[in-house]
Amino acid sequence: MSGVEHSDVIVVGAGTAGLAAASALVRAGKSVTVLERKPYVGGRAYSYEHPALGETVDSQHVLLGCCTNLIELCEQAGTAKKIRWYDEQTFLEPNGNASTIVTSDLPAPFHFAPSFLSMSMLGWKDKVGLARGLMDFFRGYPAEDTESVEHWLKRTKQTELSIRHFWGPIVMATLNDRLSHCSTRYAGKVFHELFVKSSIGGRLGIPTVPLSEFYAAEARMIEAFGGTVRLRSSVEGLVQERDGRWRANTADGAYMADAIILALPFEQTQKLLPAVRMNEEYARGYEEAKDDLELKMARQIHSPYTSILLWYDREITDLDHAWLLDTTIEWFFHKSRIRRYAREKGSYVEVVIAGSRAQLGMTREEILSSALRELEMFFPEVRRAKLVKSGVLKEARATFSVTTGLDQFRPKQTTEWPGLFLAGDWTATEWPSTMEGGVRSGRLAAGAVVGDAMRFMAPETPASGLMRWLSRE
Ligand SMILES: Cc1cc2nc3c(=O)[nH]c(=O)nc-3n(C[C@H](O)[C@H](O)[C@H](O)COP(=O)(O)OP(=O)(O)OC[C@H]3O[C@@H](n4cnc5c(N)ncnc54)[C@H](O)[C@@H]3O)c2cc1C
């Protein structure tokens, strides 16, 4: 490329945050250029051709009924029909016991009551404690993020079994970190949205196609509205020109715009910040504001995630997905069933270890053999089936952790520097590290660009049943 390309807004990064920001702005009539350093869009929600396996692989990403902005974005891009929705969830114990949570016709907040009462994975004492615990999030969730989930569980005297079979798995799956790290504010939000507020907030949605294919439609939508998406374009420096406009420099060219949105994870924002050059008018205030942002980023920590991918010569169960209790592997996705592959092709399965710090130091063989041993306990057919191929995906920087006290260190989407905006799941969204958090941050940044912060935000899931009168929100 030669010369400088001009547009109204440059978006750096084509993860969920960048795609959401760019989609909102092109739909509002702005000209937008998205610069993404990888050869595909989707960011951490990506899939790729695994050379050794000869398969397109990804770490399964799920969404929930309360992810209203992500769902709306998918509807706009035409990918909503590529999400399979489940109202039923199965919890398996290694001894063969299965408990199912399914939405009933009772009005919220009682929609899960019949399932909870019949769950064999918990005793009566556990269930009474659980009901009492959920009452804490009846009207909403805590405004402060100072208490850890571990502390809350002790304070509300939750039983050891309910922590092992309910609270722990839900927190690990949604916040991707251990109970002692996560704040009750975010766990409370999850419990309120999924189990109390409405009968649709806790529905489980699973994309039925590989993730980069899923998000490619968002990129096509941006282009259909006149935007440009440039892949393999890593931004290496940002310069604010004399007239206040911004120039983004990549290895093969320069791009100019009135505004720029950095839709990056915090560690990539941290890397790029020293390569930002302000014009003279703003240079003075820049250093101080930069120090403040750097301090905020220094408070963020990552939490890892490990996926074990398995291909069997036959179907090992007729379940599409399940929670796996009391083992290192925590979740099971039957990808060949979710994606409706022909049964004769056998089972393509993913098992997941959330918050997998211990696995970072283990070899792939160690992780695989332990996962296979554990999987047999839940699905005896695994012993008879032939494992055709397998892979282990370790993501050391999968998510940021919603540690206690983090909220004050999540920056807003507007910055001290005119025309420079931040997005990314880690910025202030009131959501944990999720695709919905990414989309919200992108839409908030797009709103800030047009001077109307909430303009692009979808409405929250409405409270249903009795919660229409009882919910605070
Ligand atoms: C294994 C795994 C499992 C997960 N499971 C779930 C789940 O089930 N449900 C859920 O909701 N969330 C899940 N998440 C979290 C979710 O993926 C993230 O919260 C979300 O995708 C963050 O989006 P983002 O746009 O903020 O950041 P990112 O997705 O990280 O996007 C940032 C983009 O910026 C690009 N970039 C970086 N530097 C530059 C540069 N200098 N120039 C140009 N481009 C650059 C990157 O290549 C990337 O594409 C999971 C994450 C992982 C890794």
From TrEMBL:
InterPro entries per the UniProt record, alphabetical: Amino_oxidase, FAD/NAD-bd_sf, SQase_HpnE, Zeta_carotene_desat/Oxidored
Keyword Oxidoreductase: yes
Keyword set includes Ribonucleoprotein: no
Chain ranges of the Amine oxidase domain: 17-449
Pfam families linked to this entry: Amino_oxidase
A molecular function (GO) term: oxidoreductase activity
EC number: 1.17.8.1
Keywords: Oxidoreductase
Source taxon at top rank: Bacteria
Record-linked Gene3D superfamilies: FAD/NAD(P)-binding domain
Protein name: Hydroxysqualene dehydroxylase HpnE
Organism of this sequence: Tunturiibacter psychrotolerans
